[in-house]
Amino acid sequence: MGQLTRELVRAKLHARLGGRGIDVDKVYINAIASANDSTVIYSQSLVWAFFLKLQDSEVPRFSSENLGIFSEPYTFDRKYRFDGVKLDELNEMGAAIARDLLS
Hints:
3 helices; alpha+beta; 3-stranded antiparallel beta sheet
């Protein structure tokens, strides 16, 4: 494997989502503290979220009822929910990209 860079991760995500018109730099994974506390405690662009996990030699995997995909950072407002890709699909992509980049 060559050097892991944010640009390489972006290219891998773009190859999988770009054909659907999805700008991977404008999709965010956001999380709130709990169902009772809507304070956003995590917000990363899709590219950064994947890059940070891969940088730590982890498979990018996101699962929680307090986590969602949005078109804006630092929000959990329903009007900014992003429906172009689902968490399960992102997790499958994370596993595939990790196999490519971490082997």
